[in-house]
Amino acid sequence: MLNSCRALDLTDENGFLCGKILADLGVDVIKVEKPGGDPSRRTGPCWADIPHPEKSLYWFAYNSNKRGITLNIEANKGKEILKELVNPGVIDFIRRCKTKDEAIEILDFCLKRGEIGRDDYEKYKSIIMQKGGLDKIIKESGGRKDPGYFERKYYKKDFNDQKFKNNNT
């Protein structure tokens, strides 16, 4: 429904539900956590009654369908990454496309808005037009983005890493 939108969740437990509802409606919600993780990860009950930040049922209930990133927004590198998240690149939009025509339409739109240069436009367009090119871009950029209630996976990004890694949690 809202899969063309992105929201950054910088809230504590008082705002988790809002992000959860947006994620369930298809918004690409990215939960931003400080290094060491959100304190709510330690809120019980925990899976199999084993206290652990990765097993909090409370955390999973309110943060499912979101992607996540551990980010020190006080550091310069953290500020840079946060800016990238606020203004996603063209690849982030291409990952949502199911056909070459959709991907080219996104490229055209980004070019008209000045979000990509002519060189990048031509580079991505030539890759997309190749047999399997769209799938190659999607695979190399972390996989297809199909936001939805049951389709999303939780992602975690280390602030030193430049690509999201699927945690399968």
What is the CATH top level name of the largest domain?
A: Alpha Beta
Radius of gyration over all CA atoms, rounded: 17 Å
CATH topology of the largest domain: Rossmann fold
Determine the N-to-C terminus distance.
Answer: 24 Å
How much is the average pLDDT?
A: 79
Largest sheet: 3 strands, parallel
Principal-axes geometry comes out as elongated
In total, how many domains does the architecture comprise? 2
The CATH H-level superfamily of the largest domain is Crotonobetainyl-coa:carnitine coa-transferase, domain 1
Beta-strand residue fraction: 5-15%
CATH architecture heading of the largest domain: 3-Layer(aba) Sandwich
Order of helices and strands: EHEHEHHHHHEE
Quickly count the helices: 7
Helix-strand makeup class:
alpha/beta
Question: What is the helix fraction of residues, given as a range?
Answer: 25-40%
- Identify the quaternary structure here: single chain
Strand numbers in spatial order across the main sheet: 1-2-3
Number-wise, the strands total 5
Q: What are the segments in which pLDDT stays under 50 over at least 5 consecutive residues?
A: 147-169
Overview of this protein structure:
The chain is α/β, with parallel strands linked by helices and 169 residues long. 38% of the residues lie in helices and 11% in strands. The radius of gyration is 17 Å and the shape is elongated. The protein starts with 5 loop residues before the first strand and ends with a strand. The model is unreliable at 147-169 (pLDDT under 50).
